[in-house]
């Protein structure tokens, strides 16, 4: 367990395994690094249950729904690995999704702003704050809810590898931090699961 997580919540890897009932889900297929990452999430006030829900979906896709993107293989320098998005309700995750939606739907969002401003010009009763609130609501809530309804929420990743038709869950990762993720993977395949080394080279 890393020092930050253990100082903030005093939970061991075994505590996290028991707390989240991981041995019932995928016995022996959660790395110590992943358990450290989950403890750190908890110590930071985030809900590690969001990660567990996505792992449940990977283990039983027909019985457990997901609101995030489908799992996909990773590219160099993480070849051989897969990732599954999980969604935390944090400002960072919200911002990632709103940026993606704005990029994908710029004309529609521009039209929403324009329509809101035109409606305000015609109203004698709405203040600037009222109009701004309506536009912000449309831009933020509608965009986020559209991504959620379409199972397109993105965010942080669960990194795993498939071996003999079973998923081995290695660590949590974020976009743009491939070097740190690679170091975690190397630690797991070096210390815990050397039989996976050839799959993730």
Automatic annotation (TrEMBL):
It comes from the Bacteria. This is Uncharacterized protein. It comes from Achromobacter spanius.
